[in-house]
Design goal:
Shape: globular
Radius of gyration: 30 Å
Function: E1 component of the 2-oxoglutarate dehydrogenase (OGDH) complex which catalyzes the decarboxylation of 2-oxoglutarate, the first step in the conversion of 2-oxoglutarate to succinyl-CoA and CO(2).
Helix content: 40-55%
InterPro entries: DH_E1, THDP-binding, Transketo_C/PFOR_II, Transketolase-like_Pyr-bd, Transketolase_C
Number of domains: 4
CATH class of the largest domain: Alpha Beta
Enzyme class: oxidoreductase
Keywords: Oxidoreductase, Thiamine pyrophosphate
Largest sheet: 7 strands, mixed
CATH architecture of the largest domain: 3-Layer(aba) Sandwich
GO biological process, one term: branched-chain amino acid catabolic process
Number of helices: 26
Strand order of the largest sheet: 11-10-12-13-15-14-20
Length: 802
């Protein structure tokens, strides 16, 4: 029996108005789902995944959701977004059609399929809005459970704002830490490791997180018995239940069709999380899939008649109707009137969205048709051009591709005619105008981007000697950072108590506290997630992954979430997270990989910085904290004990991003490398000079972005030869570096011999010093590779070694 929610502050009439408003939202959302599926099946939309069957619990969640709160959700939360006033009918359909106008489709301007929602955290100039004055949704992603790690960070930010003082502009991001991070997920996706990793981490950290599991018993066609032990996620999570004097969760269960109980449950959950910073799991069961998983298939194929009948009876919208009638909130006739009005509004909103989408394209279609007809008048290919024009004109609902394809095909016909120039100009202008709708905002396009930071050199005492351990440069620079930026914090495995495994944070936790310099468990994905979520809320986190190889545990989060965030919100959200790790040249298979090719090709949208020493690394951290973009900084693992000069201006010197450094000038060949391998390159260059080969050595410093001043090609113009030395596998980062130099910088114009690479072997490095020597480039390998290249040029001067 559904219980009526009692509230002494409401009269029955007030209560009735509120319930009818909720029902109206639910039925509008349902009609959007039903009509949305039809739009897909008729071909107007590409694919549809809808929130039907989950409407009523989302209404309850919306009621407990307050300004300043954040959602990190599942791609079925359309009713919630409508209920908090952040999604209209027209916007819903604009998303379905993939409208590339951010004003029409504010979630992603057509860059994600419908059902992926976001709010705008940034002003037009890239500065933060006051997030406490709005209801916030972090931008959804499709990978199942991928929203979970970010959720942890969104919740942890409230804890930081409540307990850390002195954070600038904190009032724009938090009301004394009273915000909740609300997560949603489908029951099948709780089988993912990211779900369990996040659940465990939130229980340890005790953060204000409310996690809703929408349980309709299926993951596409696969029943819960194949997904979850005991077919019940809350049952198997009982061990996380918070008890006296322990950390853990409050675990609540509620039926997804019980409107009154849902509201009471969500109010209870919000009260626990908001006041006490205790995470809550709400298992919302007995939900349905009225149209199946998505528009790509029918659920009648995998559900039997009994299940389908039960779903019709216990559809949450139907049950809400029955409940309203039972307690005299509305008569059947009043509900029918609401339903009819909802159908009308949804149809009107759909039509408005379609017209807004198609009319600008139709104008472009007419423009090209007219141009082609003009060109045809004086062309010997008149009939063919008019056929192209007629075919394009006959397309009732054109897309931009069809317009541009037509123009480009006609261009081939008029290459030697007067019409070529005007058509070519039209194509160039149309492509430039259109391409930005699909390719902008991969990186920051505001004045806060990495290129806005000017280089500042380290300042040294006149008598400074190279007698300081590199790790002390980092330590003292981090000390300056934490003093200068109260919003900065760092966390990772062994980062706190012992000051990281290489002592680059020695004494920092004692000085700045356990919240700002924190140890975490062995859980790389949620370390990244902590950073993403906190960066989304205005903090400046540095997430430490202990070794470069361990980054593979987090590469999916980096690739699918962080790297795409600014792009998929068209610059309306940002997460300027700094990821700190260390790598290169450590011996053994599992700690010495250099998967740079994998990394740079998976995380476009994140800068990848590869300093050769700790002064460079410290300068990168200082630069990044003055801009608003995410970056990965890979410190040299064998550089912490190497000696460097001690700077005087900690926290102030800045390594320029995207700028190479020439370590040695030379005339015979250009050697390009980065990181620890440069020390081997420098040693080989000394030895090569003894046999008359003068090498120019360039330290890339930064792989993304790459050599923005094109200094490498300037070097090649002088030496006419190129060798790229890299400890990644063959065809890894070296292939990317060559592509940038040869293709982007036109380096081939200056080469007198084949550009070459020297890389590690295709396998992981074997254990021990011999394993390293025979697995990765050595100084002897570099010497002999360069010598061989010069032997090809002048065999008499450089006779063959072998």
């Amino acid at each position: 029996m559904i219980k009526e929610k009692t509230n002494t502050t409401l009269t029955f009439e007030d209560f009735k108005i509120e319930v009818l408003k909720d029902y109206t939202t639910a039925i509008i959302s349902r009609e959007c789902s039903l009509l949305g599926r039809k739009e897909v099946l008729t071909g107007k939309a590409k694919f549809g995944i809808f929130g039907d069957g989950k409407e009523v619990p989302q209404l309850a969640m919306a009621k407990a959701f307050q300004n300043g709160d954040f959602r990190s959700g599942y791609y079925r939360d359309q009713t919630f977004m409508m209920a908090i006033g952040e999604l209209t009918i027209q916007q819903f359909f604009a998303g379905l059609y993939g409208h590339t106008d951010i004003e029409q489709e504010p979630m992603s301007a057509g860059r994600q399929m419908g059902g992926h929602f976001a709010t705008h955290s940034l002003n037009e100039d890239g500065t933060w809005k006051d997030l406490t004055k709005q209801k916030n949704s972090s931008a959804d992603i499709s990978p199942t459970a991928g929203q979970m790690p970010r959720l942890l960070g969104l919740a942890q930010a409230s804890k930081i704002y409540r307990q850390v003082t002195g954070i600038p502009n904190a009032a724009n991001f938090s009301n004394e830490g009273n915000e909740i991070a609300w997560g949603t997920i489908g029951n099948a996706s709780t089988s993912e490791g990211l779900f369990f990793e996040t659940i465990n981490a939130a229980g340890v950290l005790q953060v204000p997180m409310v996690m809703s599991v929408w349980d309709d018993e299926y993951g596409i066609s696969v029943h819960a018995k194949h997904q979850t032990t005991k077919e019940n996620i809350s049952e198997i999570l009982k061990g996380y239940q918070k008890e006296h004097d322990t950390n853990g969760y409050e675990i609540l269960r509620v039926k997804g069709w019980d409107y009154a109980d849902l509201i009471a449950t969500y109010e209870k959950a919000a009260d626990i999380a908001r006041k006490n910073h205790v995470p809550v799991l709400i298992h919302v069961n007995e939900l349905t899939q009225p149209q199946g998983h998505s528009s790509s298939g029918s659920h009648e194929r995998y559900k039997d008649a009994d299940r389908l009948a039960w779903e019709r009876d216990f559809d949450c919208v139907r049950q809400m109707k029955l409940w309203m009638i039972a307690i005299n909130i509305a008569s059947p006739e009043e509900i029918e009137a609401i339903d009819a009005q909802a159908k009308k509004e949804v149809l009107e909103g759909k039509k408005a969205a379609w017209n807004a989408f198609i009319e600008p394209i139709a104008e472009e279609q007419k423009e090209l048709v007219s141009l082609l007809q003009t060109i045809a008048e004086t062309s010997k290919y008149r009939d063919a051009i008019l056929k192209f024009s007629s075919d394009l004109s006959s397309i009732k609902s054109p897309i931009k591709k069809e317009i541009l394809v037509t123009a480009r095909k006609v261009l081939r016909l008029v290459l030697n005619e007067n019409g070529k120039e005007v058509l070519s100009e039209w194509i160039i202008a149309y492509t430039a105008k259109t391409q930005k709708n699909f390719s902008s905002n991969l990186f920051s396009e505001t004045d806060l981007n990495v290129f806005s930071v000017d280089k500042v050199l380290p300042v040294y005492a006149e008598d400074a000697k190279e007698d300081t351990d590199g790790r002390m440069i980092l330590r003292d620079n981090f000390d300056a950072i934490f003093t200068k930026y109260p919003e900065a914090l760092i966390f990772g495995e062994d980062a706190g108590t012992i000051g990281d495994v290489n002592q680059g944070l020695e004494g920092m936790q004692e000085k700045y506290g356990e919240l700002r310099v924190a140890d975490v468990g062995i859980r790389e994905a949620t370390i990244l997630g902590q950073g993403i979520g906190m960066a989304l809320r205005g903090l400046r986190p540095i997430a430490e992954i202990q070794y470069l190889d361990y980054l593979l545990y987090a590469i999916q989060i980096m690739s699918d979430d962080l790297a795409t965030l600014r792009y998929r919100t068209v610059g309306k959200q940002k997460a300027p997270l700094i990821i700190r790790t260390r790598g290169h040249r450590l011996e053994g298979i599992w700690h010495s990989g250099s998967p740079m090719g994998m990394i740079i090709n998976a995380i476009r949208g994140i800068h990848v910085l590869v300093p050769r020493n700790m002064t460079q690394a410290a300068g990168f951290y200082n630069s990044l904290l003055e801009c608003d973009e995410p970056a990965l900084v890979i410190e040299c693992l064998n550089g912490y004990r190497l000696k460097e000069k001690m700077p005087l201006n900690y926290g102030e010197f800045k390594t320029p991003i995207g700028v190479v450094e020439t370590l040695k000038e030379g005339s015979d060949i250009t050697l390009v490398s980065y990181g620890s391998t440069l020390r081997l390159v420098q040693q080989a260059a000394k030895e090569l000079l003894e046999v008359g080969i003068d090498c120019e050595i360039i330290d890339l410093q930064s792989l993304l972005p790459f050599d923005i001043n094109q200094d490498v090609v300037k070097s090649i113009a002088k030496t006419n030869r190129l060798l790229v030395i890299d400890e990644d596998v063959p065809g890894g980062a070296s292939a990317y570096i060559l592509q940038q130099i040869i293709e982007h910088q036109d380096g081939y114009n200056y080469l007198d011999s084949k550009p070459q690479t020297l890389t590690a072997k295709a396998h992981r490095p074997a254990y021990g010093t011999d394993g390293d020597y025979f697995s990765k480039p050595s100084s002897e390998d570099i010497f002999e590779k360069v010598y061989h290249m010069m032997n090809e040029v002048n065999p008499s001067k450089y006779p063959s070694l072998y």
